[in-house]
Fold these 2 entries.
Entry 1:
Amino acid sequence: MVSRRILLGALMGVAAPALAFAEGDGPAKPSLLTRKGRRTSSALKHQAGDKAALDQAMAKVKPMEAEPAPAPEAHAASPQEVTPDEALGRLKQGNTIFSRGGANLMLPTLARVAELSKGQKPFAVVIGCADSRTAPELIFDCNLGELFVIRVAGSTVSREGLGSIVYAVEHLGAPLIVVLGHTKCGAVGAAVDVATKHAELHGALHEMVLPIIPAVLEAQEGHPADLQDAAIRRNVRDIAGRLKVADGVLAEKLEEGRLKIVSATYDLTTGVVGFDA
Ligand SMILES: [Zn+2]
């Protein structure tokens, strides 16, 4: 026999478990419901088959997703709830889960969306490449509202990007900045071609690779077997180094131990992020 819960859920066009009523085929189970929910349940017994009445009654039952979210004050009680090392530990743990194939595939609940509409408190800023295979929320097994992400091909930081970073640190209290590159980065590869083969890129593409050229030249000095790979790692280390002195707010937080800036490289093949700290 099909559960009434499933039938009613199907009639309403919503997933049955999302509905807050406790009626099954067997003996009455302990109700998780409000009084209103029980009244609705009782009424339904007398109106089975009458879909209009059913719909009307069901409209009074609140989906569990719509439960009130916690007060935003509770979410943002302290400006510094997570230390830089704790934030780094979370990212490392999240990537370990992802690279072992155990990433959380659950989409954010509506309750979480509602909660986040009242404010955000990301625990890390990630400066990443725009490459579609390197989405930070996925590779660090994070949810909405946890990462403040700036992404440009080549993981470079423009003046506007720096402003975004400072905003996240100063106003949102993010205690960690990660500059994330990745293996086989096409933008760095293009910069290598420009620097070593005098390749020419037009317009905005040229401007995109220009900030990466110094890292290519530095990497070249070490005569690496794989210049592109060496330049990728050099590039993120250089950017992290420059960020440490790029803005007074960041410098002050670093000095106070309330901020950490680290570089890292994501391996497209293994899914593992190698941190330089
Ligand atoms: Zn890339």
Entry 2:
Amino acid sequence: MLLRNLQPLFSAGKIDIRTHDGSIVAMGAGLAAGDGGVVGFDDAIVFPGLINSHDHLDYNLFPALGNRLYKNYVEWGADIHANNKEVINNVLSIPLDIRVKWGIYKNLLNGITTVVNHGVLLDAGNDIITVYQDCNVLHSVQNEKRWKYKLNHPKANANSFVIHIGEGTDKAAADEIDTLIKWNILKRGLVGVHGIAMNEKQAAAFKALVWCPASNYFLNGRTAAIDKLKQHVKVLFGTDSAVSSPWDLWEHIRLAMQTQMVSGEELYNMITETPAEVWGLGQCGKLAQGYDADIVVARSKDGLGPMGSFLATNPADILLVMHKGCIRLFDASLLPQLAGLVHVESDFTKVSVNGSHKFVYGGLGGLIASAKKFYPGLVFPVEAIG
Ligand SMILES: [Zn+2]
């Protein structure tokens, strides 16, 4: 397939991108049409499929649960289980496979083609987007039983150990970071999530830190000192789940920019090239010949330039999401061009996202209806139409 007339974020002229067998095989101006069809764009930016380094796929049918700001995650967990028990039970009555599938769609609708799941190993598949689970997951110092033993188990695989850490503003949150570092006897590659209470010295003991500002401000009223920590540790970006943050990744991105602790380009790297390297995703996170055809096309915004348009994107602006060379979402305006290239009727569901119509791969309409059978009070940010 040839995607034509796209504005990359970091170079001046527009380009075409040719994909074949799941990979990008050519990029440049004025490529010949070839086999596989052509999809042309008028005024659009292009960037790699984004990599969300922290989510709990099965928690995305929860509304945001929090009744005040908390000093740490232990306090939050106790409070919502005491005061929000009914909604928690309602959501947990929905079968796991439905909850996980919605979590996958939440990511796709944002232009994310790889998500790192935190939790037990899920039977999630990789057909819509890539669900990365090939790491050692520990919940947290307080909530993971026998974490010291698991962290130092001689037969653990060599991949990263991912753990929520320092998620709070009090001494307990800061002290647990020192405890984790002290007990990392075999010097495992630690990927910490949150690190609100983390200092620069502690940061240097980690392989990477996943920054989730939207979740942090909602639960704790503060986020990690990324302006300082980024000098000592690789920083990745994560949304966390809907239980503590909005479903819309792009709100998270704007919040991150408002902190003035990172530049647009730094933030871009935190959801593309840096996580591809840290998680060992191979030829992913970059638009280049030989790389995976994980590609997102979005509307340009007048007068903002490519990076400004990227940072101002909303889910409604996303025109096309390709995962490993397969189209998984496209805007209704592309229907005339795509009608002969994909099986629209049998393979896609038409949905409304903030008033904009998209075609999404798979049975999203049926999924929403199934979830509501178990919990009629559910509110989804998209609606199946047609
Ligand atoms: Zn989390």
